[in-house]
Design goal:
This protein is α/β, with parallel strands linked by helices. The chain has a single domain, classed as TIM Barrel (Alpha-Beta Barrel), CATH 3.20.20. The strands form three sheets. Strands 1-2-3-4-6-8-9-12 form an eight-stranded parallel barrel. Strands 5-7 form a two-stranded antiparallel sheet. The chain has a two-stranded antiparallel sheet with strand order 10-11. It is globular. The chain starts with 5 loop residues before the first strand and ends in a 19-residue tail after the last helix. The relative contact order is 0.14. Bound molecules: zinc ion (2 copies).
Protein backbone atom coordinates (compact mmCIF):
# COMPACT_ATOMS: atom_id res chain seq x y z
CA UNK A 1 0.00 0.00 0.00
CA UNK A 2 1.15 3.53 -0.74
CA UNK A 3 1.64 6.61 1.36
CA UNK A 4 -1.49 8.16 2.83
CA UNK A 5 -2.40 11.68 1.75
CA UNK A 6 -3.42 13.36 5.02
CA UNK A 7 -4.14 16.97 5.88
CA UNK A 8 -6.72 19.58 6.73
CA UNK A 9 -8.54 22.59 5.40
CA UNK A 10 -6.16 25.52 5.92
CA UNK A 11 -6.66 29.29 6.06
CA UNK A 12 -5.47 31.36 3.09
CA UNK A 13 -4.85 34.48 5.19
CA UNK A 14 -1.89 36.29 3.63
CA UNK A 15 -2.38 34.55 0.26
CA UNK A 16 -3.61 31.20 -1.03
CA UNK A 17 -0.07 29.79 -1.00
CA UNK A 18 0.22 30.46 2.75
CA UNK A 19 -2.05 27.46 3.26
CA UNK A 20 0.83 25.26 2.08
CA UNK A 21 3.06 26.57 4.88
CA UNK A 22 0.30 25.90 7.40
CA UNK A 23 -0.14 22.36 6.05
CA UNK A 24 3.59 21.73 6.31
CA UNK A 25 3.69 23.15 9.85
CA UNK A 26 1.54 20.24 11.06
CA UNK A 27 3.61 17.76 9.00
CA UNK A 28 0.74 16.95 6.66
CA UNK A 29 1.21 16.20 2.94
CA UNK A 30 -2.22 17.28 1.61
CA UNK A 31 -4.37 20.39 1.98
CA UNK A 32 -7.74 21.93 1.21
CA UNK A 33 -8.09 25.66 0.52
CA UNK A 34 -10.52 28.31 -0.60
CA UNK A 35 -9.05 30.10 -3.60
CA UNK A 36 -10.82 33.32 -2.52
CA UNK A 37 -13.01 34.51 0.36
CA UNK A 38 -15.69 31.80 0.48
CA UNK A 39 -18.43 34.10 1.78
CA UNK A 40 -18.18 36.64 -1.04
CA UNK A 41 -19.39 36.29 -4.63
CA UNK A 42 -16.48 38.05 -6.27
CA UNK A 43 -12.81 37.69 -5.48
CA UNK A 44 -9.77 39.76 -6.37
CA UNK A 45 -7.95 39.04 -9.64
CA UNK A 46 -5.76 35.93 -9.53
CA UNK A 47 -2.45 36.91 -7.92
CA UNK A 48 0.20 35.64 -10.33
CA UNK A 49 2.94 36.16 -7.77
CA UNK A 50 1.10 33.92 -5.32
CA UNK A 51 0.52 31.31 -8.05
CA UNK A 52 4.28 31.26 -8.69
CA UNK A 53 4.96 30.94 -4.96
CA UNK A 54 2.44 28.08 -4.76
CA UNK A 55 4.12 26.22 -7.62
CA UNK A 56 7.50 26.60 -5.92
CA UNK A 57 6.44 25.90 -2.35
CA UNK A 58 4.17 22.91 -2.94
CA UNK A 59 7.02 20.53 -3.88
CA UNK A 60 9.48 22.31 -1.57
CA UNK A 61 7.21 21.70 1.43
CA UNK A 62 6.32 18.14 0.43
CA UNK A 63 2.63 18.84 -0.14
CA UNK A 64 1.55 16.17 -2.60
CA UNK A 65 -2.10 17.01 -3.09
CA UNK A 66 -4.31 20.08 -2.92
CA UNK A 67 -8.04 20.53 -3.43
CA UNK A 68 -10.14 23.67 -3.31
CA UNK A 69 -13.59 24.11 -1.77
CA UNK A 70 -16.04 26.31 -3.65
CA UNK A 71 -17.88 29.24 -2.07
CA UNK A 72 -20.80 28.41 0.23
CA UNK A 73 -22.92 31.00 -1.62
CA UNK A 74 -23.11 29.01 -4.85
CA UNK A 75 -26.43 27.26 -5.53
CA UNK A 76 -26.51 25.58 -8.93
CA UNK A 77 -29.93 24.09 -8.08
CA UNK A 78 -31.66 27.42 -7.54
CA UNK A 79 -34.96 27.87 -9.40
CA UNK A 80 -34.37 31.65 -9.39
CA UNK A 81 -32.76 32.59 -12.70
CA UNK A 82 -30.72 35.48 -11.30
CA UNK A 83 -29.24 33.41 -8.48
CA UNK A 84 -28.66 30.49 -10.86
CA UNK A 85 -26.74 32.73 -13.28
CA UNK A 86 -24.72 34.25 -10.43
CA UNK A 87 -23.95 30.76 -9.13
CA UNK A 88 -22.86 29.53 -12.55
CA UNK A 89 -20.52 32.50 -12.92
CA UNK A 90 -19.13 31.87 -9.44
CA UNK A 91 -18.51 28.16 -10.00
CA UNK A 92 -16.89 28.96 -13.33
CA UNK A 93 -14.61 31.38 -11.46
CA UNK A 94 -13.81 28.62 -8.93
CA UNK A 95 -12.65 26.35 -11.76
CA UNK A 96 -10.57 29.10 -13.37
CA UNK A 97 -8.88 29.91 -10.04
CA UNK A 98 -8.21 26.24 -9.22
CA UNK A 99 -6.86 25.68 -12.72
CA UNK A 100 -4.46 28.62 -12.30
CA UNK A 101 -3.01 26.89 -9.23
CA UNK A 102 -3.03 23.46 -10.99
CA UNK A 103 -5.51 22.23 -8.37
CA UNK A 104 -7.25 19.19 -9.92
CA UNK A 105 -10.45 19.12 -7.82
CA UNK A 106 -12.99 21.70 -6.61
CA UNK A 107 -15.40 20.46 -3.92
CA UNK A 108 -18.90 21.88 -4.37
CA UNK A 109 -22.09 21.61 -2.31
CA UNK A 110 -24.55 20.44 -4.99
CA UNK A 111 -27.21 22.98 -3.97
CA UNK A 112 -30.75 23.41 -2.68
CA UNK A 113 -33.87 23.29 -4.85
CA UNK A 114 -35.61 25.55 -2.27
CA UNK A 115 -38.94 23.82 -2.83
CA UNK A 116 -38.88 23.24 -6.59
CA UNK A 117 -38.38 19.49 -6.10
CA UNK A 118 -35.54 16.98 -6.30
CA UNK A 119 -35.84 16.22 -10.01
CA UNK A 120 -35.90 19.91 -10.93
CA UNK A 121 -32.86 20.63 -8.75
CA UNK A 122 -30.85 17.67 -10.04
CA UNK A 123 -31.47 18.63 -13.68
CA UNK A 124 -30.69 22.27 -12.85
CA UNK A 125 -27.29 21.39 -11.33
CA UNK A 126 -26.33 19.19 -14.28
CA UNK A 127 -27.43 21.84 -16.79
CA UNK A 128 -25.36 24.44 -14.95
CA UNK A 129 -22.28 22.20 -14.99
CA UNK A 130 -22.77 21.45 -18.70
CA UNK A 131 -22.89 25.17 -19.49
CA UNK A 132 -19.84 25.87 -17.30
CA UNK A 133 -17.92 23.06 -18.99
CA UNK A 134 -18.79 24.41 -22.46
CA UNK A 135 -17.49 27.83 -21.40
CA UNK A 136 -14.22 26.59 -19.87
CA UNK A 137 -12.57 24.05 -22.19
CA UNK A 138 -9.20 25.25 -20.86
CA UNK A 139 -10.15 23.96 -17.38
CA UNK A 140 -10.89 20.39 -18.52
CA UNK A 141 -8.25 19.06 -16.09
CA UNK A 142 -10.06 20.60 -13.11
CA UNK A 143 -13.05 18.52 -11.96
CA UNK A 144 -15.99 19.60 -9.81
CA UNK A 145 -16.45 17.17 -6.90
CA UNK A 146 -20.03 17.05 -5.65
CA UNK A 147 -20.00 16.63 -1.87
CA UNK A 148 -22.37 14.26 -0.12
CA UNK A 149 -24.55 16.35 2.21
CA UNK A 150 -26.04 15.78 5.67
CA UNK A 151 -29.56 15.75 4.25
CA UNK A 152 -31.12 18.89 5.69
CA UNK A 153 -34.27 20.28 4.06
CA UNK A 154 -34.15 20.82 0.32
CA UNK A 155 -30.40 20.27 0.02
CA UNK A 156 -29.48 17.90 -2.81
CA UNK A 157 -26.73 15.28 -2.62
CA UNK A 158 -28.26 13.75 0.51
CA UNK A 159 -27.53 10.25 -0.76
CA UNK A 160 -25.42 8.43 -3.33
CA UNK A 161 -28.41 7.96 -5.63
CA UNK A 162 -28.82 11.71 -5.97
CA UNK A 163 -25.13 12.25 -6.69
CA UNK A 164 -25.42 9.58 -9.38
CA UNK A 165 -28.53 11.22 -10.83
CA UNK A 166 -26.66 14.53 -11.20
CA UNK A 167 -23.60 12.88 -12.77
CA UNK A 168 -25.84 10.95 -15.17
CA UNK A 169 -26.95 14.25 -16.70
CA UNK A 170 -23.46 15.77 -16.93
CA UNK A 171 -22.19 15.38 -20.47
CA UNK A 172 -18.44 15.38 -19.81
CA UNK A 173 -18.07 12.82 -17.03
CA UNK A 174 -14.32 13.45 -16.75
CA UNK A 175 -15.10 16.85 -15.30
CA UNK A 176 -17.22 15.66 -12.38
CA UNK A 177 -16.48 13.53 -9.31
CA UNK A 178 -17.56 13.12 -5.71
CA UNK A 179 -16.33 14.13 -2.24
CA UNK A 180 -17.29 11.86 0.64
CA UNK A 181 -17.56 13.75 3.94
CA UNK A 182 -17.73 11.27 6.82
CA UNK A 183 -19.85 13.56 9.03
CA UNK A 184 -22.34 14.26 6.25
CA UNK A 185 -22.51 10.60 5.20
CA UNK A 186 -23.16 9.52 8.78
CA UNK A 187 -25.70 12.27 9.46
CA UNK A 188 -27.60 11.37 6.32
CA UNK A 189 -27.77 7.71 7.34
CA UNK A 190 -24.68 5.74 6.25
CA UNK A 191 -23.31 3.88 9.27
CA UNK A 192 -19.52 3.59 8.99
CA UNK A 193 -18.86 2.84 12.67
CA UNK A 194 -18.36 -0.90 12.29
CA UNK A 195 -16.47 -2.98 9.72
CA UNK A 196 -19.78 -4.37 8.45
CA UNK A 197 -21.32 -0.92 8.21
CA UNK A 198 -18.32 0.43 6.34
CA UNK A 199 -18.35 -2.55 3.93
CA UNK A 200 -22.04 -1.89 3.30
CA UNK A 201 -21.36 1.78 2.56
CA UNK A 202 -18.56 0.85 0.18
CA UNK A 203 -20.86 -1.58 -1.63
CA UNK A 204 -23.33 1.28 -2.08
CA UNK A 205 -20.57 3.60 -3.34
CA UNK A 206 -19.53 0.96 -5.88
CA UNK A 207 -23.12 0.36 -6.91
CA UNK A 208 -24.09 4.00 -7.45
CA UNK A 209 -20.85 5.75 -8.36
CA UNK A 210 -17.88 3.42 -8.63
CA UNK A 211 -14.87 4.00 -6.39
CA UNK A 212 -13.07 5.97 -9.12
CA UNK A 213 -15.67 8.72 -8.86
CA UNK A 214 -14.55 9.46 -5.29
CA UNK A 215 -11.76 12.03 -5.61
CA UNK A 216 -11.40 13.14 -1.98
CA UNK A 217 -12.54 12.36 1.58
CA UNK A 218 -13.45 14.88 4.27
CA UNK A 219 -12.63 13.41 7.68
CA UNK A 220 -14.92 14.84 10.35
CA UNK A 221 -16.50 13.13 13.33
CA UNK A 222 -20.20 13.86 13.77
CA UNK A 223 -21.93 15.71 16.61
CA UNK A 224 -25.27 14.38 15.37
CA UNK A 225 -26.53 10.81 15.54
CA UNK A 226 -26.91 8.45 12.58
CA UNK A 227 -29.58 9.87 10.28
CA UNK A 228 -29.95 13.06 12.33
CA UNK A 229 -29.25 15.29 9.26
CA UNK A 230 -27.18 17.49 11.57
CA UNK A 231 -24.10 18.99 9.88
CA UNK A 232 -21.84 19.61 12.87
CA UNK A 233 -18.20 18.57 12.67
CA UNK A 234 -16.32 17.49 15.81
CA UNK A 235 -12.82 16.17 16.58
CA UNK A 236 -11.88 12.63 15.50
CA UNK A 237 -13.04 10.14 18.12
CA UNK A 238 -15.17 12.69 19.99
CA UNK A 239 -18.35 12.27 17.98
CA UNK A 240 -20.95 9.68 17.14
CA UNK A 241 -18.78 7.98 14.51
CA UNK A 242 -15.83 7.34 16.82
CA UNK A 243 -12.20 6.67 15.90
CA UNK A 244 -12.79 3.11 14.71
CA UNK A 245 -14.91 4.29 11.79
CA UNK A 246 -11.98 6.30 10.43
CA UNK A 247 -9.70 3.28 10.82
CA UNK A 248 -11.76 1.34 8.29
CA UNK A 249 -11.15 4.00 5.64
CA UNK A 250 -7.49 4.64 6.55
CA UNK A 251 -6.61 0.95 6.30
CA UNK A 252 -8.52 0.29 3.07
CA UNK A 253 -5.96 0.00 0.23
CA UNK A 254 -8.62 1.04 -2.26
CA UNK A 255 -8.09 4.64 -1.10
CA UNK A 256 -4.42 4.73 -1.99
CA UNK A 257 -3.92 8.07 -3.70
CA UNK A 258 -7.17 9.58 -2.40
CA UNK A 259 -6.62 12.37 0.13
CA UNK A 260 -8.31 12.47 3.55
CA UNK A 261 -8.73 15.99 4.88
CA UNK A 262 -9.93 17.32 8.22
CA UNK A 263 -12.53 20.08 8.51
CA UNK A 264 -12.70 20.01 12.29
CA UNK A 265 -12.90 22.99 14.66
CA UNK A 266 -9.61 24.78 15.35
CA UNK A 267 -7.72 27.86 16.45
CA UNK A 268 -4.96 29.67 14.55
CA UNK A 269 -2.31 27.65 16.40
CA UNK A 270 -3.43 24.52 14.46
CA UNK A 271 -2.95 22.49 17.66
CA UNK A 272 -6.28 20.76 17.06
CA UNK A 273 -5.22 19.73 13.55
CA UNK A 274 -2.01 18.25 14.95
CA UNK A 275 -4.08 16.40 17.56
CA UNK A 276 -6.54 15.00 15.00
CA UNK A 277 -3.76 14.01 12.59
CA UNK A 278 -2.01 12.16 15.43
CA UNK A 279 -5.29 10.39 16.25
CA UNK A 280 -5.66 9.31 12.63
CA UNK A 281 -2.04 8.11 12.43
CA UNK A 282 -2.56 6.04 15.57
CA UNK A 283 -5.24 4.10 13.66
CA UNK A 284 -2.99 3.22 10.70
CA UNK A 285 -1.94 -0.45 10.80
CA UNK A 286 1.04 -0.13 8.43
CA UNK A 287 3.27 2.63 9.79
CA UNK A 288 5.15 2.93 6.49
CA UNK A 289 2.01 4.50 4.98
CA UNK A 290 2.05 7.45 7.40
CA UNK A 291 3.48 10.69 5.91
CA UNK A 292 7.12 10.87 7.11
CA UNK A 293 6.70 13.95 9.30
CA UNK A 294 3.83 12.36 11.19
CA UNK A 295 5.45 8.99 11.86
CA UNK A 296 7.00 10.00 15.15
CA UNK A 297 3.51 10.70 16.46
CA UNK A 298 2.34 7.15 15.95
CA UNK A 299 1.68 5.44 19.20
CA UNK A 300 2.20 8.58 21.31
ZN1 LIG B 1 -18.21 21.23 2.13
ZN1 LIG C 1 -16.97 18.50 4.01
Amino acid sequence: MGLLLLGAHMSIAGGVSQALDRAASVQSNAVQVFTKNNRQWAGPPINEEDVARWQEQMPALGIQYAVSHASYLINLASPKDDLWAKSRAAQKDELVRAHAYAIPHVVLHPGSHTGAGDDFGIARIAEALNRIHDETPECADTATCLEIMAGQGNVLGRNLEQLRAIIDQVEDKRRVGVCLDTCHAYATGYDIRTAEGYAGFMAEVERWLGLDAVKVWHFNDSKGALGSNLDRHVHIGEGEIGAEGFGHILNDARWDGTAMLLETPKEDTLEEDAMNLARLCALVEDGARIPPGLRSQQGE
